[in-house]
Amino acid sequence: MSPRRAAPGSHQELFPGSDLTAEEWEFARAIERYRARRKKRFLSWSEVLTVARELGYRRVPPGTRGEPADAGPPERAVSARDPPGE
Questions:
Q1: Is the dihedral of CA 61, 62, 65, 69 positive or negative?
Q2: Would you state the torsion angle of the CA atoms of residues 1, 12, 24, 26, taken in this order, to the nearest 10 degrees?
Q3: Is 83 inside any structural domain?
Q4: Residue 44 within any structural domain of the chain
Q5: Model pLDDT for residues 12-53, shown as the tens digit of each residue
Q6: Number of folded domains in the chain?
Q7: How many CA atoms lie within 13 A of 61 on its CB side?
Q8: For all residues of the chain together, what is the average pLDDT?
Q9: Residue 15 lies in a domain
Q10: Domain ranges, residue 24
Q11: Measuring CA to CA, which residue among 58, 59, 54 is closest to residue 31?
Q12: Contacts for 18-22: CB closer than 8 Å, 24+ residues apart
């Protein structure tokens, strides 16, 4: 017996969190096209950044989107293994 196919429109019911925006779908399709062109199963982070740049991503300098010009580096992410207060 072959596996049962999902009815159209039920993808989101089977895979919670799969409701992507149009921009997210565009990025996912661009990644898939890149993988197919390069015949690669997995991409490096450099390749992911290449795809983002091909879609027009550019870093915005601090101070141009409402951040103070002297914002400095972002705060370090806290790990669950870090002692409290650090």
A1: negative
A2: 50
A3: no
A4: yes
A5: 566 666 788 899 999 999 999 999 999 999 999 999 999 999
A6: 1
A7: 4
A8: 76
A9: no
A10: 20-54
A11: 54
A12: none
* Within a domain: 48: yes
Rounded-to-integer distance, Cα 14 and Cα 6, Å:
8
Which of 31 and 66 is assigned the larger pLDDT?
31
73: left (phi > 0), else alpha (psi -120 to 50), else beta? beta
Give the pair of three-digit tokens for residue 73: 């580096």
Please name the amino acid found at residue 20: L
Contact 49, 27 (CB under 8 A): no
Residue 11's pLDDT band (boundaries 50, 70, 90)? low
Please name the residue ranges forming H helices in the chain: 11-14, 22-38, 45-54
The overall longest dimension of the chain from CA atoms, in Å, is 64
State if pTM tops 0.70.
no
Q: How many CB atoms lie within 10 A of CB 60?
A: 9
